[in-house]
TrEMBL record:
It is found in: Cell inner membrane; Cell membrane. The keyword Cell inner membrane applies. It comes from the Bacteria. It is a multi-pass membrane protein. It comes from Gemmobacter megaterium. The chain crosses the membrane at residues 9-26, 149-170, 182-208, 238-261, 296-323, 343-369. InterPro entries: MetI-like, MetI-like_sf. The lineage of its organism: Bacteria, Pseudomonadati, Pseudomonadota, Alphaproteobacteria, Rhodobacterales. Belongs to the binding-protein-dependent transport system permease family. Residues 147-366 form the ABC transmembrane type-1 domain. SUPFAM superfamilies: MetI-like. This is Microcin C transport system permease protein. Its main location: membrane.
Length: 379
C-alpha cells in the first residue's frame, strides 16, 4: 500500500501543474484584465464590460486599450503593469533614477506569458500566493478570513447528509417496496427536484421573517453581541445562524446519497454470498452489517470526495449570497469578476491540491472499510 500511496503522491504535482496551465492560459484570453478594471473605475465609467461588449476592448489580461485608459497618464498605466507583474522596466547600465519616471534610459518591457506562469508557479510551490490586487491583503490571509463560513457549510452539510442518508438508505433497502419506502422515495425525489437556491429562498420567507415566522436570523454567521455571550451561548448562537444555510446546502446531496445507499445495498443483498450466509443461520442484522455493509459502502465512500468538494466549493456561492454570508464562494466570484489574478490562481492551486489529496484519502478509506482491497495488486 505504501508504494501505491507514493505513486499517487508523485502524480499530484504534474496533475496540479496541468490544472494551473490550462486555467492560466485560458484566463489570459478573457477580455477585461485587472488594469482595465482599475482604469474603468478611475475614469468614472464604472463597468469595463460594457465597453468590451461595444467592441472597444480586445482579449488580453494586460491590455490597456480600454478607451477609459486614454485619459490617464501613461506613467500611471506603466506602473500598474509593472506592479501587477505584466511588465518590467529595463534601464540602461549605470542609470540611478527611478524607472517609473519613464526616463529615456528606461524602457517598459512586457513579460511573456510563459515567464509569468513560471514565476507564479515557483512562488506557489513555496506557498507564496502573493497579495490581492484590490484588497491590500495577502491571499492566504484573505482565504483564512473567509474559511469559517465555507467550513461551516461544507463540514456540517456533509456530516449531516451521511448521518441521515446512510441509515435511511439502509432502512429503505431492507423494506424495499413497503409503504415506508414509497413515501420516503416521493419526498426524496421532490427534494432532489427543488433547486438549492429556490429552497434557500423558501426557508428565508417562511422561517427568517420574510412573511411568516421569524425563528432564525436573516444574515451572518454570528450575532452582533457574539463577544458578550457565554461559551454555551456562542455555540447555540453559531448553530442558530447556520441552521438555514446548512439545510439549504443539504437538500440535494441528501437525496442523492440516500438513493445511492439504498441501491447499493439492494444490489449486494441479491448476491449469492448473502443467500449462503442466511442459509448458515446467521441473523439478519449479522448478515446486513457483518457482510453486506462493507461491500455496499464502497460506492458510497467513493462518492465522498466529490460530495464534500461540491458542497464546500460548488454550491456555496448561491447559499452565501442568499444568506449574506462572506465565504470562499463569494470571494471567488468577486475575484473572477474583478480579474484579481492572485486570488483566482492562489485559491485554484490550494483547492486543486486539496481535491487531489482527498482523492487519495478516499482510496485509503476503501482499504479501511474492506481490507480485501489491494491496490498494490493492480496491474
Amino acid at each position: 500500500m505504501g508504494a501505491y500511496i507514493l505513486r499517487r503522491l508523485a502524480l499530484v504535482i504534474p496533475t496540479l501543474i496541468g490544472i494551473m496551465v490550462i486555467n492560466f492560459f485560458l484566463t489570459q484570453l478573457v477580455p477585461g484584465g485587472p488594469i482595465d478594471q482599475i482604469t474603468a473605475r478611475l475614469d468614472g465609467q464604472g463597468d469595463v464590460f460594457r465597453n468590451i461588449a461595444g467592441g472597444s476592448e480586445t482579449p488580453g489580461s494586460d491590455s490597456s486599450s480600454y478607451q477609459g485608459a486614454r485619459g490617464l497618464p501613461p506613467e500611471f498605466l506603466d506602473s500598474l503593469e509593472v506592479q501587477f507583474g505584466f511588465a518590467r522596466f529595463v534601464c540602461a547600465e549605470g542609470f540611478t533614477g527611478r524607472p517609473s519616471s519613464r526616463a529615456a534610459e528606461c524602457v517598459k518591457e512586457a513579460i511573456p506569458l510563459w515567464e509569468r506562469f513560471t514565476i507564479m508557479m515557483g512562488n506557489y510551490l513555496t506557498f507564496d500566493f502573493g497579495q490581492s490586487y484590490f484588497r491590500s491583503i495577502s491571499v492566504v490571509d484573505l482565504v483564512l478570513e473567509k474559511m469559517p463560513v465555507s467550513i461551516s457549510l461544507g463540514l456540517w452539510s456533509t456530516l449531516i447528509a451521511y448521518l441521515i442518508s446512510i441509515p435511511l438508505g439502509i432502512r429503505k433497502a431492507v423494506r424495499d417496496g413497503s409503504t415506508f419506502d414509497t413515501w420516503t422515495s416521493g419526498v426524496i425525489i421532490v427534494a432532489y427536484a427543488i433547486p438549492g437556491f429556490l429552497f434557500a429562498i423558501l426557508l428565508l420567507v417562511v422561517f427568517a421573517g420574510g412573511s411568516y415566522l421569524q425563528w432564525f436570523p436573516l444574515r451572518g454567521l454570528t450575532s452582533e453581541n457574539w463577544d458578550q455571550l457565554s461559551p454555551l451561548g456562542k455555540v447555540l448562537d453559531y448553530f442558530w445562524h447556520i441552521a438555514l444555510p446548512v439545510t439549504a446546502s443539504l437538500i440535494s446531496s441528501f437525496a442523492t446519497l440516500t438513493l445511492l445507499t439504498k441501491n447499493s445495498f439492494l444490489d449486494e443483498m441479491r448476491k449469492q454470498y448473502v443467500m449462503t450466509a442466511r442459509a448458515k443461520g446467521l441473523s439478519e442484522s449479522r448478515v446486513l452489517y457483518g457482510h453486506v455493509f462493507r461491500n455496499a459502502m464502497l460506492i458510497v465512500i467513493a462518492g465522498f470526495p466529490g460530495l464534500f468538494l461540491s458542497v464546500f466549493f460548488g454550491s456555496s456561492l448561491i447559499i452565501e449570497t442568499i444568506f449574506s454570508l462572506d465565504g470562499l464562494g463569494r470571494m471567488g466570484f468577486e475575484a473572477a469578476v474583478a480579474r484579481d489574478y492572485p486570488v483566482i490562481f492562489g485559491t485554484l492551486f490550494v483547492f486543486g491540491l486539496i481535491g487531489l489529496v482527498v482523492g487519495i484519502l478516499s482510496d485509503l478509506m476503501y482499504v479501511w472499510v474492506d481490507p480485501r482491497i489491494d491496490f498494490e495488486g493492480r496491474g
